Amino acid sequence: MNNRNKYISREGWLSIIGNIILFGLKYWAGIVTGSLALIADAWHTLTDSVSSVIVLVGGKISQKPADEEHPFGHGRAEHIAAIIIGVLLAIVAFDFILSAIEKFGTKEKTIFGTVAWVVTIISIVVKEAMAQYAFWAAKKSGSTILKADAWHHRTDSLSSIVILIGIAVGKYFWWTDAVLGFIVALMIAWASYEIMAKEIKSLLGESPSPELLLSIRETAQKVNTQPIYLHHIHIHNYGHHSELSCHIKLPPKMTIEEAHNICTMIENALKEEYGFESTVHTEPIHW
To answer: Whole-structure pTM over 0.70, yes or no?
Structure first.
């Protein structure tokens, strides 16, 4: 097991175990107090466990080597897994928005007690610790799916903070629990949007930034003594593997061997500088 897969596996199992325990505590507290917000927060936590299973599966698939049907590897499995996490969050958010609207209509007051205080504080501390670990693991491994899971933990922690504030003022307003449930649902929906927007953009393909394009041209030019006019630069991301294709203009009377050597030097330079697997296409330059 390489380091990347080790980080994904460790974070996934830690998240599954921790979230199942927190789900039980929050759901019990929600039933005891009759709080929609606490129950919503409990289900939000349970979706973390589901998403962590997706993290493990997606991480395992992404590590599979390239084969005949997938010549560029399976790295995009991480993006697909992250999108599934986003969809799960959207479904949970929609369900609790409806529940919050229904409870607001009944004008039912919720009485929070010591149980709600203790469970919510525990949840905040544990979920933020899990988020910090997932962010750290994502940075170490370069995994987008770990980053998505980290934001899932972070939104759960933030929603618990909102609930804690609501518990403090809940005894003064009958509508506190309904409003808290609605706010938590909106926070979950925003997390869903953030995850899916980024991952869908990665799957559809992004244009390299002007700064990166300039840097690539400079790197390629450094290994050549004559102008090479690098253009049509395209970068294709496959999770933790990227392919670059580009065109260069060379004198039409240059031999195939000379042109091949120039292309090879450029490909090696781009591999060393950025880690890209590059394909360089030559074109004749007409003065």
So the answer is: no
